[in-house]
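Incident review: delayed structure delivery

Summary: a single-chain prediction request sat in the queue longer than the usual turnaround. Root cause was a stuck worker, restarted by the on-call engineer. No data loss occurred. The affected request and its eventual output are reproduced below so the record is complete for anyone auditing the incident later.

Affected input:
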Amino acid sequence: MPSRLIKKVAETITKKPSAIKEENKKEVSNVRKLKILITVVDRSKTMFYEDLLESFEINVQMVLYGHGTASSQMRALLGVAEGDKSVIISFIREDKVKETLEVLSEKFKKVRNGKGIAYTIPLDSIIGVAMYQLLSNDRTIKEGGKK
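Output delivered after worker restart:
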C-alpha cells in the first residue's frame, strides 16, 4: 500500500467524527450551482462571442449552426441581414451569470452586426466530481486533503 494512502487512512481513523463532519461541510459549501447559458448570435460573430465568454471562466462551450426559415423579403422588412445563426451552449457558474449577461447585453448593442439573444437555464444535478470540476472550471485538485 502506498505510504500516502496509509497516512490518509491513519488520519481519518484518529480524527473525531465532529471534525470529519466540519471538513465535509466546508467542501460542500465550496460547490457553486451551475447554469446553462444559451447565446444566439450571427454566425459571423461566433468566434468573437466564444472568446468573450471564455473571459468569464466558461470552460465548456458547444456551437450549433442554424439557418433561419424567414424569406429574404421578410428579413429585409424586419431589417435582419443574415439568416445564418450560431447557438452557443455554455456551462457557467451561478455567481458569474449576472455579470456575463450584462456584458453580453452591452455587446449586443455596441458591436456592429453583433445583435443576439442570451438566457440561462438552471442545471439541477450533475454526476461526478470530475465532471463538475470541468464544467465549473474548478482547477483545484485535492490530494491528501489539501487544495
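Verification: Residues 64 and 87 are 5 Å apart (CA to CA).
Action items: add queue-age alerting; document worker restart procedure.
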